[in-house]
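Progress note, sequence design subtask.
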């Protein structure tokens, strides 16, 4: 499969079912208790950013349905997938499809999406400049060093006119693909250090998980990608489970609670600074995108 095939798949799949999460039929944790509990066991869900208030709201909503949820926090993106694979977690919810595909291929794993949450834009922030045009030539921008987010960050910088990428860039682009003569230099750092390293750089592309907790504001946002673009489909964030658990009724109920509880959805949007796009994408489409992305990654290794 060619490098271009993923984009074609992304455009063909529906970004569907956007903005359906806050309908009048949503559940309220104060009124949605059920006598028919799906499970009485504790379900451990790994996340990056457990301090976001909506996780407590989510736990309360799950408890009202008879499900005890433990939110397990991780400080970096490279930890929750191995923990899920090893059975230390039952689910995780922190990553988009491309990140999961990259992990599965590199680790020889088979974790699977069981539900969608949101698409979050990836933004360029600066504490020194208020406009992309103000960034002097030769300055340095920080980007995340993990493969999938690094490529996405480079595409953001290219769309902002700060760099040019070989062959126009792709989900496989790295810092090595930046063309000579680009306006700025780029340095890859750990995703959880992009925001804190801003004093040392002209700007940094910061993952949504680290924007609010680092105190960054919309006034410091210089550029971002468009989460409503159909080509952003592989960046849908997901609940992930082990392949053997994709039909687990308790886990599927937890996805439903996340998607259909108004207070949770409002909290997700608030935590994203209002930038997230809530989605209820069919699981079959998530799986198709994951499989095609994995094929693309293998073909380009």
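Output:
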């Amino acid at each position: 499969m060619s490098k271009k095939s993923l984009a074609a798949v992304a455009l063909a799949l529906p970004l569907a079912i956007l903005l359906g999460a806050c309908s009048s039929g949503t559940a309220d944790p104060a009124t949605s208790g059920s006598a028919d509990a799906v499970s009485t066991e504790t379900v451990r869900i790994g996340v990056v950013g457990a301090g976001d208030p909506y996780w407590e709201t989510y736990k309360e909503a799950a408890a009202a349905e008879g499900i005890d949820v433990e939110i397990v926090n991780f400080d970096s993106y490279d930890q929750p997938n191995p923990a899920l694979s090893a059975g230390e977690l039952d689910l995780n919810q922190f990553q988009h499809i491309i990140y999961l595909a990259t992990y599965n291929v590199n680790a020889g794993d088979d974790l699977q999406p069981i539900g969608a949450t949101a698409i979050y834009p990836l933004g360029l922030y600066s504490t020194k400049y208020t406009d992309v045009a103000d960034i002097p030539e030769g300055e340095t921008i920080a980007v995340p060093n993990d493969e999938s987010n690094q490529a996405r960050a480079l595409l953001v910088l290219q769309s902002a006119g700060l760099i040019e990428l070989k062959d126009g860039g792709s989900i496989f682009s790295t810092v090595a693909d930046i063309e000579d003569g680009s306006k700025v230099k780029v340095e890859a750092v750990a995703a959880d250090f992009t925001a804190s390293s801003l004093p040392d750089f002209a700007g940094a592309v910061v993952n949504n998980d680290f924007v609010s907790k680092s105190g960054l504001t919309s006034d410091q946002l210089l550029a971002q990608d468009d989460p409503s673009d159909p080509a952003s489909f592989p960046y849908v964030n997901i609940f992930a489970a082990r392949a053997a658990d994709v039909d687990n009724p308790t886990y599927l109920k937890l996805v439903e609670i996340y998607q259909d509880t108004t207070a949770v959805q409002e909290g997700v949007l608030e935590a994203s600074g209002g930038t997230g796009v809530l989605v209820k994408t069919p699981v079959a489409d998530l799986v198709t995108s994951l499989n095609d992305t994995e094929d693309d990654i293998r073909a380009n290794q």
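Residues 1-37 have pLDDT under 50 and may be disordered. Work on this subtask will continue into the next period as scheduled.
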